[in-house]
Design goal:
It is built from 11 helices and 10 strands. By secondary structure, the chain is of the alpha/beta class. The protein has an 8-stranded parallel β-barrel, surrounded by 6 helices. Strands 9-10 form a two-stranded antiparallel sheet. The protein is globular and about 65 Å long. It starts with a strand and ends with a helix. The structure holds coenzyme A and magnesium ion.
Length: 287
């Protein structure tokens, strides 16, 4: 997955539009973009949409962002949408692996209740929305076999910190958010799952988005969340491995295959050892 597009779960119009956006996944939102008074209706709109969209050929993955574990809303969210068998659930305000396990238990109950494959529903945790979550980023390893990735975000974290803004005057993220971003990369690597970059809220600024995508890819993120369909092509392009990168990775894998037992090989005048092989294999795994 390269692009994950947020869509308010109470808007059938946007949900239909998102289906043709070419996003690799839709993150159908029951949380922050849906007013408290509209939650019940959003669950219904979302379930109806899921039931119809999941049978379409060549569709994006369909994930639902439920309300957080401490809101008192999450069980009604899951009861409302799990019968329509979403591919995954997005957990906002997650505080470490314990929260991923907790959600995993709730999903297991619904899978049994609705006759779905045991363990089939994936989890994506949004893991830096408050200070506690940032301190818990090192705890995701082994938390749940459902957990496919962790994403970071700077919007809710700035509210938790009482900050005036999360950006410096030059537009770059201020220190606390850069720390959360870096720890997300480290936490994901430590858990062997994907690191997913934050949304870029200025949805008319494609140059700014492209620049942020390049930095994210460079540092090890494999995907980025989006809030507007126009952001999807920019993200997809940035996170699709280039033909040259694929060829280089294949050459590395071939070189190690041709030298069984070798810890280090030379390719085109460059020394390559195990980390290079792992990186090449990981890139080819995304193609
Ligand atoms: N998914 C699907 N369709 C979307 C969309 C989205 N995330 N964002 C915008 N669109 C649609 C609009 O409905 C509009 O459709 P139309 O041409 O058929 O009328 C079209 O794309 C162009 O939209 P635009 O006028 O540029 O933006 P807007 O002012 O309608 O919407 C937002 C701006 C921010 C309200 C909207 O992008 C949005 O709802 N984003 C998702 C918000 C969200 O889920 N946040 C939670 C996670 S942070
Ligand atoms: Mg939020």
């Amino acid at each position: 997955m390269r692009s994950l597009l947020f869509v308010p779960g109470d808007s059938r119009k946007k949900l239909d539009k998102a289906l043709t956006s070419k996003a690799d996944a839709l993150l159908i939102d029951l949380e922050d973009s849906v007013d408290l008074g509209a939650k019940a209706e959003a669950r219904q709109v979302t379930a109806t949409f899921l039931a119809e969209a999941r049978n379409q050929a060549d569709r994006p993955r369909l994930y639902v962002r439920v309300n957080g574990l401490s809101t008192g809303l999450i069980d009604d969210d899951l009861d409302g949408v799990m019968q329509a068998a979403p591919d995954g659930i997005v957990l906002p305000k997650a505080v470490g692996g314990v929260d991923a396990s907790h959600l995993g238990a709730k999903l297991a109950v619904r899978e049994a209740e609705f006759g779905l494959d045991d363990g089939g529903t994936r989890i994506l945790a949004i893991a830096t929305e408050n200070a506690l979550g940032v301190f818990a980023l090192g705890t995701f390893a082994g938390a749940s076999h459902r957990l496919m990735g962790i994403a970071w975000g700077g919007e809710d974290l700035s509210a938790d910190l009482g900050a005036e803004t999360n950006r410096r005057e030059d537009g770059s993220y201020a220190e606390p958010y850069r720390l959360a971003r870096a720890l997300t990369l480290l936490g994901a690597a430590a858990a062997g799952i994907d690191a997913i970059d934050a949304v870029y809220t200025n949805f008319r600024d494609m140059d700014g988005l492209a620049a942020e995508c390049r930095e994210a890819r460079r540092d090890g993120f494999v995907a980025k969340m989006a809030i507007h369909p126009a952001q999807v092509p920019v993200i997809n392009e940035a996170f699709t491995p280039s033909i040259e990168a694929i060829e280089r990775a294949r050459a590395v894998v071939e070189a190690f295959k041709a030298n069984p037992g070798a810890g280090v090989v030379g390719v085109n005048g460059e020394m390559l050892d195990r980390p290079h092989l792992l990186r090449a294999e990981r890139l080819l795994g995304r193609v």
